[in-house]
Specification:
- By secondary structure, this protein is α+β, with helices and mostly antiparallel strands.
- It folds into 3 domains: 112 residues, Alpha-Beta Plaits (2-Layer Sandwich), CATH 3.30.70; 95 residues, Chitinase A, domain 3, CATH 3.10.50; 174 residues, Trigger factor, domain 2, CATH 1.10.3120.
- The chain contains 12 helices and 13 strands.
- The strands form 4 sheets. Strands 7, 8, 9, 10 and 11 form a 5-stranded antiparallel beta sheet that branches. A 4-stranded antiparallel beta sheet has the order 1-2-4-3. A two-stranded antiparallel sheet has the order 5-12.
- Helix 1 crosses helix 2, helix 3 crosses helix 6 and helix 9 crosses helix 10.
- The relative contact order is 0.11.
Length: 437
């Protein structure tokens, strides 16, 4: 086998390979002979079919398979010989530029190689590390939320007040024309909760069951519905019911309802505190990870292999299409193209390449003790933690997610050790609320 390498671009290469036909013919006859021992044809016993008939029946397919395997094997050998790191899949095509040498099969493989990656100086990166603890007030606030979630509602005849559940019908128009999402029947709103635009809350305040009104509402310029952003709508609103919440008492029955066998409120508070601490730990890890990856990306210049970006964009498209179908959308109504996902794909590919190179260069691979500790931590949230740990370690593929998390943890720690880290005091509520909205 002979091979020559051409540089077509910054990452694109063409590998020209010549394979002796004698080797292909030899493999073809070997496979044909093996096939003749097992093939079945009418009128012949297995293994007794004449080789000539086997060749007539199966020869073209066998030869095609042999050539395909020879091309793939020769390409792999040439890549190793040239010490290349191939990104994506090669495009195999007939050799161009002159007649092939006698007794050889010549082909070209066009592909991209992985880029050289040089991570910049992380010492100049500034990262803010939140300093926060779970306080008794955080526990009490969470329990109050749990109580409100278990509240029952009793209809009243008075006007709506903050905290009341209000059942309404509404219809909105812009310039006299209804717009998508502007109409609803039997829609539930908690007065003063802030989930509706301020004009909606203001309109509902004081309204009693059976009352109706019209009011104007101007959508914010940055409203998520682009077709109505910045426009003024007229709404017709009818209140059908106003109900006052009856929040359950914080007592033994309430604690028991949340799985406290002792029925003690103190045990419920301890359980809530433990859960909040775990939630806080994960949030802090996510905040630091986001900043660390952003710092790495900003300080690393690299050329992205187009093949990897395209494959990632297609994968993102398929995921989105699957999600839309699960939500009831018909496949023929899903109008998506890879171009919509290309910016996201570029960032994902870039980070993947940067992290892969950093992990190799700095030895940041997951350690067995790290993976075990992470599995044990997650297992503690189950009734039989030891059984959960055993289940994960029964098959190595079940540990893949934990190994990935361990690698990310090691990368973040590496960045924090080199960057300028500033501790910023904050509260649990301030840190968590953006994610809860």
């Amino acid at each position: 086998m002979q091979s020559t390498l051409e540089t077509l671009g910054q990452l694109e290469r063409r590998l020209n390979v010549a394979v002796p036909l004698a080797a292909i013919e030899g493999e073809f006859h070997k496979r044909l002979a093996r096939l003749a021992k097992t093939v079945k044809l009418p009128g012949f016993r297995p293994g007794k079919v004449p080789l000539k008939m086997v060749a007539q029946q199966y020869g073209p397919q066998v030869r095609s398979d042999v050539i395909s395997d020879a091309v793939q094997s020769s390409f792999n050998d040439a890549v190793r010989e040239q010490n290349l790191r191939v990104a994506g899949y090669p495009r195999i095509e007939p050799r161009t530029g002159g007649a092939p040498a006698d007794g050889t099969l010549e082909f070209s493989a066009v592909f991209e190689v992985y880029p050289e990656i040089a991570i910049g100086d992380i010492a100049g990166a500034e990262i803010e590390r939140p300093q926060v603890e779970v306080t008794p007030a955080d526990v009490d606030r969470t329990i109050d939320v749990l109580r409100r979630q278990r509240a029952t509602f009793e209809p009243v005849t008075r006007g709506a007040q903050n905290g009341d559940r209000v059942l309404v019908d509404f219809a909105g128009t812009i310039d006299g024309v209804e717009f998508p999402g502007g109409q609803a029947k039997d829609f539930t709103i908690v007065a003063g909760e802030g989930r509706m635009l301020p004009e909606f809350d203001a309109a509902i305040a004081g309204m009693a069951a059976g009352e109706a009104k019209t009011f104007s509402l101007t959508f914010p310029a940055d409203y998520h519905g682009k077709e109505v952003a910045g426009k003024t709508a007229q709404f017709a609103l009818t209140v059908k019911e106003v109900a006052v919440p009856n929040v359950p008492a914080l007592d033994s029955a309430f604690a028991t309802a949340f799985g406290m066998k002792s029925g003690k409120v103190e045990d419920l508070k301890a359980e809530v505190e433990a859960n909040l601490k775990l939630e806080l730990k994960r949030k802090l890890e996510a905040v630091l990870k986001e900043q660390a990856l952003k710092a790495l990306r900003a300080r690393t210049q690299l050329t992205l292999p187009k093949s990897l970006v395209e494959a990632e964009a297609v994968q993102l498209l398929r995921q989105m299409a699957a999600n839309l179908q699960q939500q009831g959308m018909k496949p023929e109504d899903i109008k998506l193209t890879p171009d919509l996902f290309r910016p996201q794909a570029e960032e994902r590919v870039a980070l993947g390449l940067i992290l892969g190179d950093l992990v190799r260069q700095e030895g940041l691979q997951a350690k067995p003790e790290q993976v075990k500790a992470m599995v044990q931590e997650v297992a503690q949230t189950y009734e039989q933690p030891e059984a959960v740990v055993r289940w994960h370690f029964e098959k190595s593929e079940r540990l893949a997610d934990f190994e990935a998390m361990a690698v990310e943890h090691n990368v973040v720690e590496w960045v924090l050790a080199k960057a300028k880290v500033k501790d910023v005091p904050t509260t649990f509520e301030a840190l968590m609320e953006p994610a809860r909205r």
